């Protein structure tokens, strides 16, 4: 969930008012009952009855919708113990979180980019959750914790944003989060304590993550193939190279808990590569040609992701109003940078195709190089990562 420095940012997208969401399935509850810090065990939000027809909604084209999830064979999926906000001492949110009368269609996996502590106690887990909430509310200006759920290195699972657990148990509606712009309603965000760039998560955390994902898939009817990393949609290192590389295993193991089997193309996703300063090789050279095609890189495409390339990427991201304009080339900027190229055309975009075709030893290139073709040339085999985004009216805070 973090940017390159392990810190969260407030989105630079325009903040939309609640009125824009009228008629879009939005429920705005009000606080009731006790309000003191440490006493957040509110009653069920108003409007708990699901609106007629909402359960029949499906996802965007090409995205498995709610009906494509676990199915009747997963009735035995056990609910893991998840500590509610009041149990770990959460503060009262600045204002009530928004609840949408729709089901999410995917799960996003994050890491906190914090220390890999050896303290696996419940107390440490609760302190970590409070620290995240304080950062999100006081530094980012958000109303509450951004993520829906949090898992400690000791395997302790906690509700992140208020009411997320109750709506999950209901299986029909979702609390709006702030864990990834564009994915805060259609995706459930799970924070995993630690930094997983060079090490694997602890067995306790992994087991809890797997159980949590299976329960979320079961309650919301999300297909186990629809588990993604934060970097699939943003320019970020999150959830770390190691944890991100374990996502095919996570999809497969979650499917097993749901009594399902995934094909390789379902378990492995065709993601955009994450390129950063210090990287070298044909993928960087192709990116440089595309940056030169876009007008932000000057000079040769030498295959070195140096300071000059970082500047060019940042300039491109700023021009395209990226939420993460940080010089990391990831899932937010690749779809805009890798424009469609017609066969036989000259220019820097076509040169990028030629570089990758030689590198992959591809004998033939499609007449039209679109996003799936770019991803194949970049070496990310598997089914495409869907591009569906949140409905209008999401505050991203």
TrEMBL record:
Which family does the similarity line name? Belongs to the N-acetylmuramoyl-L-alanine amidase 2 family.
The residues covered by the Peptidoglycan recognition protein family domain are 80-234
User: Which residues does the annotated region (Disordered) include?
Assistant: 38-71
Origin organism lineage: Bacteria, Bacillati, Actinomycetota, Actinomycetes, Pseudonocardiales
Q: Which SUPFAM superfamilies match?
A: N-acetylmuramoyl-L-alanine amidase-like, PGBD-like
Q: Which organism is it from?
A: Pseudonocardia nematodicida
PROSITE patterns attached to this UniProt entry: TAT
Gene3D superfamilies annotated for this entry? Peptidoglycan recognition protein-like, PGBD-like superfamily/PGBD
Q: Which domain of life is it from?
A: Bacteria
State where composition is biased (Low complexity). 47-71
What's the protein called, per UniProt? Answer: N-acetylmuramoyl-L-alanine amidase
Q: Which CDD domains match?
A: PGRP (cd06583)
Query: Which stretches make up the N-acetylmuramoyl-L-alanine amidase domain?
Result: 90-240
């Amino acid at each position: 969930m973090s940017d390159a420095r392990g810190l969260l940012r407030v989105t630079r997208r325009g903040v939309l008012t609640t009125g824009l969401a009228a008629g879009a399935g939005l429920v705005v509850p009000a606080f009731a009952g006790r309000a003191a810090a440490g006493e957040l065990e509110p009653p069920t939000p108003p409007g708990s009855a699901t609106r007629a027809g909402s359960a029949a909604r499906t996802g965007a084209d090409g995205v498995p919708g709610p009906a494509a999830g676990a199915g009747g064979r997963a009735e035995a999926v056990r609910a893991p113990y998840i500590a509610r906000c009041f149990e770990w001492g959460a503060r009262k949110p600045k204002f009530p979180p928004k609840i949408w009368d729709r089901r999410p269609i995917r799960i996003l996996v994050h890491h906190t980019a914090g220390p890999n502590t050896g303290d696996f106690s419940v107390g440490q887990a609760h302190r970590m959750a409070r620290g995240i909430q304080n950062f999100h509310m006081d530094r980012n200006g958000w109303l509450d914790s951004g993520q829906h759920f949090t898992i400690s290195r000791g395997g302790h699972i906690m509700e992140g944003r208020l009411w997320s657990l109750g709506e999950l148990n209901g299986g029909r509606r979702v609390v709006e989060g702030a864990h990834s712009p564009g994915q805060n309603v259609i995706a459930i965000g799970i924070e995993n304590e630690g930094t997983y760039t060079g090490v694997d998560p602890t067995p306790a955390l992994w087991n809890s993550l797997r159980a949590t994902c299976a329960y979320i898939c079961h309650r919301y009817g999300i297909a186990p193939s629809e588990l993604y990393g934060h970097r699939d949609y943003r320019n970020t290192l999150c959830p770390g190279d190691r944890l991100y590389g374990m996502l095919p295993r996570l999809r497969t193991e979650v499917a097993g808990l749901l009594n399902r089997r995934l094909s390789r193309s379902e378990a492995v996703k065709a993601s955009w590569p994450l390129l950063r300063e210090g990287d070298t090789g044909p993928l960087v050279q192709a990116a440089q040609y595309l940056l030169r095609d876009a007008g932000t890189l000057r000079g040769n495409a030498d295959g070195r992701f140096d300071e000059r390339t970082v500047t060019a990427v940042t300039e491109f991201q700023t021009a395209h109003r990226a939420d993460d304009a940080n010089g990391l080339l990831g899932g937010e900027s690749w779809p805009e940078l890798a424009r469609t190229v017609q066969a036989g055309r000259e220019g820097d975009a076509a040169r990028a195709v030629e570089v990758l075709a030689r590198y992959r030893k591809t004998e033939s290139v499609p007449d039209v190089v679109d996003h799936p073709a770019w991803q194949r040339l970049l070496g990310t085999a598997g089914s495409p990562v869907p591009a569906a985004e949140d409905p209008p009216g999401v505050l991203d805070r």
